[in-house]
Design a protein that fits this description.
Blueprint: E1 2-5, E2 8-11, E3 14-17, H1 18-24, H2 39-48, H3 52-63, H4 70-89, H5 98-114, H6 120-139, H7 141-147, H8 156-167, E4 174-177, H9 180-191, E5 200-203, H10 204-209, H11 211-221, H12 229-236, E6 242-244, E7 259-261, E8 264-266, H13 281-288, H14 295-308, H15 312-315
Parallel strand pairs: 4-5, 4-6
Antiparallel strand pairs: 1-2, 2-3, 6-8, 7-8
Helix pairs in contact: 2-3, 2-4, 3-4, 4-5, 4-6, 5-6, 6-7, 6-11, 8-9
Length: 330
């Protein structure tokens, strides 16, 4: 049972004081405990055993006295984000709500950023995207589109991927993503400072599994939200191009002819992609510097795109040796 009352959060057998957790962030406590590199792995193992609540309790007690352990903060933020996703899967019911979980995730990930954890900036953007999902489910796509909310910075190589995905999709297209990193990049590519605001980013698996997301996106696209994903997209295709990002499989997609255009596959072969060129500057620099924690995920997306579009390999030549096996083989 989960409850939030009087600032005290009870989750299973674990107890975390919400106010105390928030108060930990700005303060540097003299004489705080030494970092124990074994705590985060032990908490991660508890989560694998289905005891995430015990893992949260362990991390909370530990971080109360060892605030300089960035990895522990980062894992705590992951746990809270997992709880938020579980809230969605449970039919948007439960106490605390996903909003509370994401508030806690934000606190923890901001602390891990301060402590220079490599993957924290990307994860901070993912927490923001989760919050945007809550706003979308609450107020609808138009409110998200019109809000022009400032987005947290993305790692340059992921931001560049978002611009390239957006630049691959024809005007007024629906940019359908198949993985979390693709969805994040597509969201920024559509709604970022220089984004393609004519595009609608759609997460295929959420449309299938999350009834509230499906209802909101169906309304935004002007279609019947009770139909299957394939039937819904067939209806959309009558008025808008559909663009599949590299990780989207054709299973569950409409039986249409899909034409590769740059990084995506498009159902409307006669619709040219916008004139904005692809850029790989950040990817080339990132690979040349030895890569970062998220480089392999981005390279896998470009490699998957090359499987569908041989012409893309010429553009990817500067990083061809770093692409996954089988992509752009010489």
């Amino acid at each position: 049972m989960r409850s939030l009352a009087g600032g005290l959060w009870t989750r299973g057998t674990g107890v975390v004081t919400l106010g105390a957790l928030l108060a930990l962030v700005p303060a540097q406590v003299a004489g705080q405990g030494a970092v124990d590199p074994n705590v985060a792995p032990r908490a991660a193992e508890l989560n694998r055993q289905g005891e995430r609540g015990l893992g949260i309790e362990m991390l909370g007690r530990y971080l109360a006295v060892a605030q300089s352990d960035g990895r522990a903060w980062f894992l705590l933020s992951q746990f809270y984000r997992m709880d938020a996703r579980d809230w969605h899967r449970a039919g948007h019911r439960g106490d605390p709500s996903a909003d509370v979980y994401l508030s806690l995730a934000s606190v923890a990930v901001d602390e891990s950023i301060r402590l220079h954890v490599d993957s924290a900036p990307l994860f901070r953007a993912l927490v923001f995207l989760d919050r945007s999902l809550l706003s979308l489910e609450d107020s609808g796509w138009d409110a998200i589109h019109d809000a022009r909310t400032e987005l947290p910075p993305l790692p340059p190589v992921v931001a560049e991927l978002g611009r390239n995905l957006a630049a691959s999709c024809p005007a007024n297209g629906v940019l359908i993503s198949g993985s979390e990193v693709e969805w994040l990049a597509a969201w920024y590519g559509a709604l970022g400072p220089d984004g393609r605001r004519d595009l609608v980013p759609l997460r295929a698996d959420l449309y299938v599994t999350d009834s509230l997301y499906r209802a909101r996106m169906a309304r935004a696209l002007g279609i019947d939200g009770t139909r299957s994903l394939s039937d819904a997209l067939t209806e959309v295709a009558a008025s808008r191009p559909l663009c599949l990002t590299p990780a989207v499989g054709l299973g569950g997609m409409p039986a249409m002819h899909w034409t590769p255009i740059r990084l995506v596959r498009v159902n409307a072969a006669d619709d040219a992609a916008p004139a904005t060129p692809l850029t790989l500057t950040s990817l080339i620099v990132d690979v040349g510097d030895g890569g970062s924690i998220w480089t392999s995920d981005v390279l896998a997306i470009y490699g998957a795109a090359a499987h569908h579009n041989d012409l893309l390999c010429q553009s990817l030549a500067p990083v061809a040796s770093s692409l996954p096996a089988g992509a752009c083989e010489q």
